Amino acid sequence: MSIVVRPADVFEDVATLVGPKNPTSQSCFCLSYRIPSKESLSLRGEARAERVRGLCAEDPPPGVIAYLDDEPVGWAAVHPRRDTGFATNRLIPHVDDLDVWSLWCLRVRPGFRKQGITHTLIEGAVSFARAYGAPAVEAYPVDNQGAKVDLTMAYVGTRALFESAGFTKAADTESVINKFPRVLMRLDLR
């Protein structure tokens, strides 16, 4: 199995991976941390899709996609923290003034899970951020200590997953998902 990770600049592939099943939905498309909350909540249906289409045309695009034989199978949202909701998030601290990138959403399509694609996505997201000059990448996974995480909340990843990718815990947070505390994990790229 050969997985290739590329920038998420093809809207149709992003829609395949994180587009809502209900076309009138005001959720997903991975916008909750990428754009201001008020804007995200106001966008529905085609307006939401068009906002994402615009992000895919930006440089950098909103993340990376894992492809298996040119089929999109995985998504990772990664972007400079300063341009995300994490820039002002009161529950997730800033460790320092470094202009880090945030990696906050991982998704692998059903039928392709448990094949190592998430690990490849993280590597690809880090390489993507490095290519844009990121001095470090942060993630905000749950510290579930091996307990099962509800699939709808698993998008943030786990502490163990990020540790296996070379990230280290940089701080505790006040954020909780699925009753598990989130931790700030960081990978220094300098």
From TrEMBL:
The keyword S-adenosyl-L-methionine does not apply. Residues 3-190 form the N-acetyltransferase domain. It holds the Pfam family Acetyltransf_1. One of its GO terms (molecular function) is acyltransferase activity, transferring groups other than amino-acyl groups. Keywords: Transferase. Gene3D superfamilies: 3.40.630.30. This is Acetyltransferase (GNAT) family protein. The keyword Transferase applies. It comes from the Bacteria. It comes from Microbacterium azadirachtae.
